[in-house]
Amino acid sequence: xxxxxxxxxxxxxxxxxxxxxxxxxxxxxxxxxxxxxxxxxxxxxxxxxxxxxxxxxxxxxxxxxxxxxxxxxxxxxxxxxxxxxxxxxxxxxxxxxxxxxxxxxxxxxxxxxxxxxxxxxxxxxxxxxxxxxxxxxxxxxxxxxxxxxxxxxxxxxxxxxxxxxxxxxxxxxxxxxxxxxxxxxxxxxxxxxxxxxxxxxxxxxxxxxxxxxxxxxxxxxxxxxxxxxxxxxxxxxxxxxxxxxxxxxxxxxxxxxxxxxxxxxxxxxxxxxxxxxxxxxxxxxxxxxxxxxxxxxxxxxxxxxxxxxxxxxxxxxxxxxxxxxxxxxxxxxxxxxxxxxxxxxxx
Length: 347
Hints:
Structural class: alpha+beta
């Protein structure tokens, strides 16, 4: 299978991937349910994992709040490219006589769990396949990091009946994560625990990352329902200033209360389609834990400073979002009529 393995890997790299790996059923044995390749292809024998880099050129403008659109557009396009590579790979293998299934890069969920798609369980975990195959390694955040791009990548996978030749995980010494915790500090929702760790074992190998709090924290903040950090000194790209709860249990009610204002506010021209969200679309306003992480620690620190000094987002009457100082933001909110102000904060 040397030839077909090499051609499959070359296809992914030629079409835009920066790293490619291959896992087999044996390598995933004992892993979480989302590593069961048979879930999507009963006779699966292996899977191809790959990473497509996000543009590093858009990240500084994201953290400094100079441009929302540049990274947003790049993020959507990179997800589409990753999904497209999966489709091309699966088509190639199918045409060669090996039944294969392409997995979309994002927003795909199992329907047979207790709460269906709202449990947000993927058919197959791109992350687990990526770390087991050597595409990257876990950072504290649980994001997959690569030696060149950090966490600024989009992952993709293809499951196949071809017995492709496996690749090895990255050696531990290549994992640059030094537990700096800037990913945690850049998250306004408190999603990353940062102290307690969780581990998964796949094929006899253990992989660890930080415990996460309930995923509704990320839905609430990254999805734009709220965005003001509890310090009041910085925000995500969301103009909403609704309270960010302390406990996991309080997040679902907070999200429900924020839906009405969310649907009434002006929306960016670009949005991500996601069936979990009101109107089947979600704003991308954060992603800080992913974008801040880079192999160069000085660059990580620079990005964090940019975020802390970027101010807070407000929305002007024309619907355009702009960054202003916390003091100026309060003045603008106070000048709004109650109905308009209620679109952004509790009145």
